[in-house]
User: Fold Glutathione S-transferase kappa from Elysia crispata.
Amino acid sequence: MSRKSVELFYDVVSPYSWFAFEVLCRYQTRWNISLKLRPFFLGGVMNESGNRPPAMVPNKGKYMFKDMHRLKKYFGVPLNIPSDPPKVMFEKGSLNAQRFLTAIDMSMPDKVEPVTRELWMRIWSRDEDITLPDSLAQAAQKAGVSDEDIVSLLASMKDEKIKGRLKQTTSDAMAIGAFGSPIIATEVNGEKEFVFGSDRFPILADMIGEPWEGPQPGVSSKL
Assistant:
């Protein structure tokens, strides 16, 4: 039986996307799937869809931070709330990080998973920067990318082909109906469908005909 294609559209500024990312990475060896990580720009999706970040709605913001404390245990992800969430999410943002991941995806796709994880560890676990070149370099180093490749990757972030790819991935997500992050897409009866968020895995499992065994299905974590 051929592997079912599953695409994860994500932005490292989104903590809920981290939960979804780790679950899918755990299940890529348990489900008969081919997982494609697709970094996109959440800011563009929010603008084009007319959505608002949950943290900008006072009651949603209060709920979100309490919810994340519960979910870090449930998903087995070492998430910690940054000292200044609005600055992290809305002022500093993630455009540079997403361009960096796009550059990695285009030149060394096997490093997308570990570098993405290191960026989430920086922003959503250790309250560290992900916008400056040195910050991106440190994340890549921890993920096993050579210094020579890091220099090349950082330089390529200014290339129009990198910017164009990120825009295209964001447009691809919009084309299937994205309004936030994470978006998990697959094909059902020949048509592309998606689920939104980190709490739809039982539904996703049903869509692709695989068993759902919980968020930590007895496999070793890479965290």
